[in-house]
Amino acid sequence: MTFSGKAKSKVSPLSRLGRRSVLAAALLAGTALAAPAAQAEPAAERAAPVPDLVCRLDAELNFSPPLGVRVKEAEVSGHVGYLDCHSPTGRAPQLTDVVWDIEGIGRFGALPPTFSVEGNDTGTWNTGEVGSLYYKGDLKNGSPVPDRTVTSGPLAGDQINGLQIPKPRFDKIDPDGVAGFDVFGQVCLWPGEKGRCTAF
Hints:
Elements: H1 13-43, E1 53-67, E2 73-86, E3 98-109, E4 114-125, E5 130-138, E6 147-152, E7 159-168, E8 173-174, E9 177-190
Antiparallel strand pairs: 1-2, 1-9, 2-3, 3-4, 4-5, 5-6, 6-7, 7-9, 8-9
């Protein structure tokens, strides 16, 4: 009797086992090669942020009318000086100082007693360039300065942080509340992620 067609080839169990072993070995080798890279990424230390400018803070704020228990919101005026600036990034070595004219709102919270400010400042740098910034935050001794963002002019887009020491001017404290603060400290202007200003 004659059979047409090709006879099917038989694959032995040993051959199947050999192929599986080769595939498993290849997968293990790939995993071993990828593992060091995967482990190295989290272990790599990220470079600490560096500010564009570090400046001495010297400010005078005035509330009109004085803020206190009777008056919870008032106009805030005065000036904020960023003085003796230096540029750790080297991006703005020509900017050594600026005086911002304050225009905003001051608020008083009774429990606990808290003074806060919010508004927009316009200032002129030592180079003659004009800029502006937005600020909002509390005036607390030894606390971070109110959040600030440079909205125009040199270093527009930079975020600002730092440390402040606000002190009431006793000649402006009257029975109706506190009418003024002097604020000293240090500020940093950051081009991206903010770091710790006191490190500079």
